[in-house]
Amino acid sequence: MKQVKTDMPPRLEVRGLVRRFEGKAVVDHVSLSVPRGQVTCLLGPSGCGKSTTLRMIAGVEMQDEGEIYVDGALICDTKFRVPPERRHIGLMFQDFALFPHLSVADNVAFGLKGAKEEKRARVEGLLTRVGLMRFIDGYPHELSGGEQQRVALARALAPRPRIMLMDEPFSGLDNRLRDDIRDETLAVLKDEDAAVLLVTHEPEEAMRMADEIALMRDGRIVQQGAPYNIYNAPRDREAVAFFSDVNVIRGKVQGALTDTPFGQFLAPGVPDGGEVDIVIRPQHVKIDFDRAGRGPLATVQDGVPARGVVTRARFMGSESLVEFRMDYDGSTLKATVPNVFLPKEGQALWLMIRRDRCFVFPAKGGVA
Ligand SMILES: Nc1ncnc2c1ncn2[C@@H]1O[C@H](COP(=O)(O)OP(=O)(O)O)[C@@H](O)[C@H]1O
Ligand SMILES: [Mg+2]
Description:
The chain is about 20% helix and about 35% strand. By secondary structure, it is of the alpha+beta class.
C-alpha cells in the first residue's frame, strides 16, 4: 500500500452522518475516512443504508446530521452545502447509463472542460487504459455489457475526480466477466490515485477490491478494518455469518471455560453461569473416519472428536459441503472438505474443531 503522510487530511471524511426517513434513522451516525489512493468498501446487506450514505456524500441527498470533508475542507453540513457538480466526485452507479446518442469518445469527454486537444488526449489516454481505443468512434449499443462498464469507468474518471463513489457497479455483469472487470477497474483506480468508496453487498467483492472494509448493519458501521482483520477477527457472530456459513454451539461458562461435546473452550471474561456462542466456519471442521465406533484421539489443537452421520453431501467444484446430524443431540453441523472427498449419506464420521480458528462470543439471548 502507498505511504500516506500522517499530517495530510484524509481525502474523504464523513463525521456522524445521519439520515432519517419517517422518523427512522436509516443511516445512523456513520463516520469514516478514505485516504487518497485507497479503496474502502461499504459492505452490508440490502437495505442497511449503503446507497443513502453514498448519495449524501455525492450531494444528491441531504443529511439530517453530520459533516462531509474533502481534503480537510468542509463541503457539506446541515447548513452549508457545496453543490454536487463542484465536489470533484466521480460517480458510478448500478444503473449507469451511457448516453446512447453520443459516441464512445463523446461519452467519455462529457464532463470534461478545456481545450479540444486536451480533452481528446485525456479521452484517448483513458480508452487506451481500459483497452477500448478501437471503439472510440463507436456507439454504446455496439458494445458488450463489460465494455460499456469500462466506458462508464473512463467517463467517471475523465475529470480526474478526487473521490470515486461506486454503488454496486458490477452487479449487472455475469460472473466470469465480473472478476476480470473488477481487477481491471481496481488497477485503473489505483493509477488515478482517487479515494474510492465502493458499495457492495457481496463479501467476495469487498475482499477482492478493498484496502479497508466498513461493515454496515442497520444504518451503522459495526466494524472497520483491512479485509484480513475483518475476516479473521470479526467482532460478533453476525460479522462471521456475513462472510460465510457458520455453525454455532451454545455453552454455559464455568471458571472461564465452557464444556461442549467437542471438549472445553476458553471463554475469557465471561462470568460463571453466562452463556457463549462458539462460532465455527464449515472449513474449520475437520473430518475423520469411523474405526469400529471409534474416532481419532483428542488433541490440544483440535479438542475432542464427536460423531455425526452424513445427511447431505453436495459437490461444489473446489470443495464439497457436507451436513451432519450429530450423535450428541441430533443438531446439524456443516463442514466443507476438499472435493476429492465426497462422503455418502448415512455414513458415520468423526468431527473435530480447530481451536485456533473458531470464535467465542457472549451469547446475545434467543436460540442458537
Ligand atoms: N427516499 C426514501 N424514502 C423512504 N425510505 C427510503 C428512501 N430511500 C431509502 N429508504 C430506505 O432506507 C433504507 C436504506 O436504503 P438504502 O440506503 O438504499 O440501502 P442499501 O443501499 O444498503 O440497500 C431502506 O429501508 C430503504 O427502504
Ligand atoms: Mg443500494
